[in-house]
Every structure is written in C-alpha cells, then in structure tokens.
Specification:
With 417 residues, the chain is an alpha/beta fold. Helix content is 34%, strand content 22%. The strands form five sheets. The chain has a seven-stranded mixed beta sheet with strand order 7-6-15-16-17-14-18. This is FAD-dependent oxidoreductase.
C-alpha cells in the first residue's frame, strides 16, 4: 500500500483519489478551499443554485468513463437526462438554432443567399485551399464566409480575445464541429437536429447541480480543507508535504505554482520561463434572473456587448430556482467590473437581472504549438521522482468534466496501478 497525496480537490483530484483508494492506497487530499469541486463549485443564492464557473453537465463517449461514473452515481435516482436545446442570438435578436451550420435556413434571405453562394464555391473549389493551419482557417474553410463572419469569428474572438489565426488547431482537438459539406447540406434540407456534438444530450443532478457531483466524489476521502501547500520537499524516497511523508504526489493544482513549491528540489529551471509564459483566460460569471425560455445555452456573437453566452442553469433542474423564477449565468471572458457588468446586462437578450457575480482568474488554458511537448517533457522528469501532473491547469489542457475523469483513469491505469 502506497501513501499518496493529491493536491487539489477539483474533478481531477477527486477522481484520481477515488481510483487510488479503490486500488488499495492510503490517500490524503489537500484542498485550499472550504469545499470540493474546483471549477464546478456551486453556491446557493436566494434559494437558487449558482454555478460559479460555467454550467457543468455530464456526458461522455468513453465507455470506461461512463462505467466508472455509474459505479459511483445512481443515474436513475440522482440524475435526469436532457437534450441540449441551444440557440444563437444574433445582433438583430433573431434566434438561430444551434449548431448554426445545420440551421442556415433560419437566417435572413440576404444571408441565406450568401451562404448558398459560399457552399457553391466550396463544392467547386473542393480541397484546393489545402489543410487549415489555424483556427480561423479551419472555421472559414469548413463553414464559409457568411457563417464565419456572422457567428464563428465574433463569438470566438469574444471568448479568446485574440486573432483566431494565432490559435493552433491542436489546442481545440476534439472540441471542434466536424460536419462534412454533404452533412451541412443534408441537415439544412431536411431540418435534421444534430445529435453528435459535445453535450447534445447530458445528465444533470436532480438536486445540487455539479456541487452534488463533487460532494459525492469526495465522500469517504481524507480531505484536508482550508489548507495551503507551501512547499514540496524530497528526502530520500519521501516527499514531505506540510510535514507529512508520502511516497508519491499527484499535483492537480496550477503548474505556474510549481517552480516556487519545488524550490529546486527537482531541477526544472529549464522549464520555468516557458511555464511563466503560459497564457490563460479567466471568467466573470454573473448570476442573474432571466426571462423564461426553453433553452440550455444561448450564444451571443454580437459585438454590442462583451458577454459571449448565457447558460440557463435554471432550466437544467427545477430545483435550481425558487418558484416563478428562472436563473442563469451570463459569462464574460476575464475580469469586468460590476459597473460594466450592469451596463452590459442592459443590452443583452432575455433581460438578465443582476444577482451576484464571481471572477475566477484561471478558467481556460491557452496552448501554443509547443505547449504539449513542453508539458510532456516536464512530466517525464517529474514522474521519475514520483510527482505526477493531472488536471486542466496542471497539464494545461482544456478538459471538460468527463475528459478530466478520463485523464485520471488513464493515469491510474498506465502509471499508478
């Protein structure tokens, strides 16, 4: 039996801790906050459930992740299954069903005419444009000039706050829509609803939202809350963490904190400048009462305001609201003042009324073409010393909840059994 410390009680930390405990190890989890969950934490505001970062739901295409999930949770009892019902609110307030490429027929006649011209050009030119080399080219080549200009470009520029030509495709691997030209045409002809995109159907807790998931994963784990890790020391085969000795360390925190924590115990000096330069975005999540609607996500490409989407978390479960009220989260990339929040809310569709807000500094890691190679090389050095990196900001990977669980399963099976 190994004695292992897991640093961080987000989804990644909780998942690997459960796997290690079930594998017969003695595991201690250290968490700086007063409850588990990391980015999936929720609060109760005026009797309504507030997802403090996003609106986290569960679905997966990985059989092993689903089987592991079902070994912990009672899906029939504790969850409801929902079909995603999302729309794009265009600058003229016209609502286009999501994904937009399947519903181009809902655009104005002028835009639809341009879309048809784009498709004709794409059919005529075939693959003469070659393979896309960045995110902008991918979107433009795949969907045409009209959809790129009216939706994909403004929406993604609001999220990522950068020229999309500078975004490498590898960073968003597995998260991009991949319909063929034939599928786009076919779906528009027969008005077929797409069911293969991310979270087209999902499971959501009947009570407690994603905090319920975190709390359930945390059950029976030895978690030390409100505890900061101030250093990671190595003495012979022992890792000293807050004066306790462990055989191995699973670091699920932020890799930017690692050089200071290690303090040259393991020489990673050649990586420090690259770690320091890693880019990221934060999120300001504004909890609001909103007009009644049937939607789950409302995407906001308009440049008239800074918010990029409304997550109608109140529609995920009736228990998320008080009677007669529908709540949701309006999301802004990075920090925005309350004064500017209120000015923006006046312009946003569905009349969001401010309740509270939270700014989270680290929510979206941003990769360049060298990031994954750098992280892999760093992992190879650290793992020889018994220190493992796992999680969105430890690995600098854009993990959803199911992907975080999958990464924990992969690490356990390949390195920690």
């Amino acid at each position: 039996m190994k004695k292992i410390v897991v640093i961080g009680a987000g989804v990644s930390g909780l998942s690997i801790a459960r796997l290690l405990v079930d594998g017969g190890n003695k595991v201690t989890v250290i968490e700086k906050e007063d409850k588990p969950g990391g980015l999936i934490k929720c609060d109760n505001i005026n009797g309504c459930l507030y997802h403090k970062v996003g609106g986290h739901v569960f679905n997966t295409k990985r059989k092993d992740v689903l089987e592991w999930f079902e070994s912990i949770f009672d899906k029939e009892k504790d969850f409801s299954k929902a079909d995603r019902n999302s729309v794009v609110s265009m600058p003229d307030r016209r609502l286009i069903n999501y994904p937009v490429e399947n519903h181009a027929y809902q655009f104005t006649p002028v835009l639809l005419d341009e879309f048809i011209d784009n498709l004709q050009g794409m059919i005529k030119n075939g693959d003469t444009k070659g393979e896309p080399t960045n995110f902008a080219e991918f979107l433009y080549f795949r969907f045409g000039a009209m959809l790129y200009r009216e939706y994909f470009q403004p929406y993604n520029e609001k999220i990522w706050k950068r020229d999309l030509t500078t975004v490498p495709l590898s960073w968003l691997e597995g998260k991009l829509p991949m319909p063929t030209l034939k599928e786009i045409l076919y779906n528009n002809f027969i008005h077929l609803e797409e069911k293969n995109f991310v979270h087209s159907t999902f499971f959501y807790p009947r009570y407690g939202g994603s905090q319920f998931l975190a709390n359930k994963l945390a059950e029976e784990l030895d978690i030390r809350y409100n505890t900061q890790v101030v250093s990671l020391e190595k003495r012979n085969e022992c890792w000293l963490v807050n004066n306790d000795c462990f055989d191995q360390v699973i670091f699920c925190g932020n890799i930017k904190d690692l050089p200071v924590l290690l303090n040259n115990v393991v020489d990673i000096s050649s990586f420090e400048s690259m770690i320091e330069k890693l880019e990221y975005h934060g999120t300001t999540s504004v909890f609001c009462e909103i007009e009644k609607n049937p939607y789950s996500w409302i995407y906001l490409p308009s440049r008239e305001y800074q918010a990029h989407r409304i997550i109608c978390t109140g529609n995920f479960s009736e228990a998320n609201n008080t009677p007669g009220v529908l709540t949701g989260v309006v999301e802004f990339t990075d920090h925005i003042s309350k004064e500017d929040i209120l000015k923006n809310l006046e312009k946003i569709p569905f009349s969001p009324r401010y309740l509270t807000h939270t700014y989270t500094k680290y929510t979206y890691p941003i990769q360049d073409t060298l990031t994954r190679e750098m992280i892999l090389n760093l992992k190879n050095i650290l793992e020889k010393q018994g220190l493992y990196l796992l999680g969105r900001f430890a690995e600098w990977e854009y993990y959803n909840m199911d992907a975080a669980m999958g990464a924990a399963i992969d690490m356990f099976n390949s390195k920690l059994k």
